[in-house]
Amino acid sequence: MQLGKNLFLRLPKMKKVSRFLLIFFVLLSLPDFTSFGSDNLFKYQWALKNNGNFMVNKNILEVSYKPVFFDALVSDTMFFADKNIMNFYYSASDTSKILASHEGIDTKWEEGFNLFKSVPYGRDIVIAVIDTGIDITHPDLKDSIWVNVDEIANNGIDDDANGYIDDVYGYNFNKGNANVMPESLLEVHGTHAAGIISGSHVNGGVYGLAYDEHIKIMPLKVLDANENGYMASVIDAITYAKNNGAMICNISLGTYSYDASIDEAIRDNSDMLFIVSAGNGMNFVGYSLDERDVYPAKLNLDNVISVSNIAFDGKRYVSANYGSYVDVFAPGTYILSTTPYGTYAYLTGTSMSAPFVSALCAMIYSRFPNVPISSYKNIIINTSTPIESLLGLSKSNGIINVYEALKIASTF
Q: Which of 90, 174, 387, 405 has the smallest CB count inside 10 Å?
């Protein structure tokens, strides 16, 4: 494919969002455990603290199969699941039909967040989420959104003379306007990523890894309502992010063909970090990036961290790509986070894994300013928790460890 201004790209997933995002209602009984702070949804965020009680029951998936989103008053028994993907986990002789989590398969976030908060100072950092747009009014996100203080909203004037009109909360490079909001409830991808990074912790919703007054999210919309777009929009978004102070770009999308423009844009911004999803294979089956391509995940650069998806049972998720171009695994299966119009949902994919690493990098940057950008990738790889089932599937052979990464960062 000839790549350039008219390059077509999409999220590295199934062609239709409804075939990939986990938007089906399931009833489960889940034992409780002590929540962190005040949030009543914390106990469902296995990626932060996994006590082995999180589970999915295939029998229930087979009898309860209708789309639904739940609000902030969600009961303790509401979940989302995808019956098609679940079929990969079971054989004909399987009688239990239970996919259970394994205690300790998590990011060691509690210990890490306590260390993060123990540092009495913070450096401001902006994370550009280059995606489908973000619900900037969501109760869990509204305090974490970057604001262009030099721009006046809705006056039709480029007040700060940066080339973009009314870009108070970022920009929509797909449609060429300042509207970064999702167009429908199903346009959840960017909002979900933002919640993983910086959900507010304070209103009974979800915990984002890096919620902090010094860490802000810059919404940069490059995909349309069908999650299609062009590489030229991604390049423009990267340039905008750099010119407006972002230090990290979360890019949970990709193309299957090499494009020199994205390679050049990332190389030219070596003082920024690019956290990218490794991709979700073909037809629910992940493949090795040593054999097939996904870009920018396959750009083996010091400032690119390629992230794949580990499930709560400690195994690579069936659709997650792997191989020597993948740097690390992070949670990406049944991840609870924010979705448009004040809702929440469980989604699955490497697109959910990348924001965990973006958040961890932001935590390092904010609290440990002596760490050079060139060291972030090695810190995250070398401090990962080894997982036997991931041996040989990435450079790290394991899952990110927030606590160990911050502890090493504190020694610089």
A: 90
